[in-house]
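Tokens in:
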């Protein structure tokens, strides 16, 4: 049957919600962003909390845009139709996709204006997601331009702590749960995988990390078999795909 609609107001009636979790836009223009939704354990196995990431991305589209980031700490992973199971780069040595093989990524948006979902079932030891505002992106762009030979890891070593200190960046997506990120012009948020350098420096010979499941609608419809050459047939659901096609009248 088609996906049943739900709203953020429905969730607020059943869950503890914290808003204004982060001050993100820097010292000259600070404002709060982010919401965290704590789903009671007794509700986690029923709809909508056991739904696919695409249900959250679509039914909460306006809420994601309003808050910039939505977090559901500890919500059990639903792997249905994930586009990538992103492990440590050393586990993706077979891939030609630099977003899988590089420890630190360029700041970017995924298929704007559609939001992105990341879902963790375990704690990530060596990696996380760095999220910045537009001033953070501008600083990153300027820094990389001024240091053309710098490695992406060294750029992150400088810029991630700097952004945390001046309020233009936050680091999320290293603890279990669901994270939804806006990619629209409304919030102008940009993200990248980054290293948890303290952990990497303590264990430079690490070989693996917890899988981080990624989801976005355009990836599901058009790129699910090319972003990770070894994605394979697991965790695919034609009915959930059909709901995504129907939601915006996409062509699969």
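Residues out:
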């Amino acid at each position: 049957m088609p996906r049943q609609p739900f709203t953020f107001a429905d969730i607020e009636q059943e869950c503890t919600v914290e808003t204004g979790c982060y001050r993100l836009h820097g010292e000259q223009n600070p404002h709060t962003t982010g919401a965290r939704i704590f789903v009671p354990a007794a509700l986690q196995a029923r709809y909508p909390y056991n739904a696919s990431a695409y249900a959250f991305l679509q039914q909460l589209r306006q809420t994601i845009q309003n808050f910039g980031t939505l977090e559901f700490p500890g919500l059990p992973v639903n792997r249905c139709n994930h586009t990538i199971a992103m492990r440590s780069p050393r586990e993706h040595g077979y891939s030609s996709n630099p977003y899988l093989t590089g420890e630190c990524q360029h700041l970017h948006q995924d298929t704007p204006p559609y939001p992105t979902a990341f879902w963790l079932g375990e704690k990530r030891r060596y990696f996380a997601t760095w999220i910045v505002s537009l001033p953070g992106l501008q600083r990153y762009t300027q820094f990389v331009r001024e240091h053309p030979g710098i490695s992406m890891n060294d750029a992150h070593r400088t810029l991630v702590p700097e952004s945390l200190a001046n309020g233009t960046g936050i680091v999320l997506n290293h603890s279990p749960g669901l994270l939804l990120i806006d990619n629209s012009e409304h919030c102008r948020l940009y993200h990248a995988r980054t290293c948890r350098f303290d952990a990497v420096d303590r264990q430079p010979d690490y070989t693996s990390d917890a899988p981080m499941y990624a989801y976005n609608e355009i990836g599901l419809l058009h790129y699910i078999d090319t972003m990770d050459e070894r994605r394979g047939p697991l965790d695919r659901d034609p009915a959930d795909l059909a709901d995504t096609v129907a939601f915006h009248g996409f062509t699969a």
